Predict the 3D structure of the following.
Amino acid sequence: MTAPPDRFNGRRFFASMTGLSENAVQQAWDAAKVNLAKLQGCARHQVEPPEETKAGMKLTCTNCGGTMGLNQISEYIRGYEAAGKSADDIWPGYRDTKRDVAL
Ligand SMILES: [Zn+2]
């Protein structure tokens, strides 16, 4: 008879991967769940256009208080536009900022 495998402990795993304490991992997880609940309960996200965008920055929705990364809000806007709406409803001037990007 073999011993049962150890139950996976995600808190311990992420603590070992990041160097954070298990308590800090738990706090981050709890904060992420609170943020997700805010975002999922929002009828329509809206953000104040930032002065400039930087990699890794997060924006806060003025309706729900949830925070989103730039990729997340960009995908949200794309979906909103695909439904026939204007990006300006979410991020005033959003499409104007995209005209400056040279590919
Ligand atoms: Zn929102």
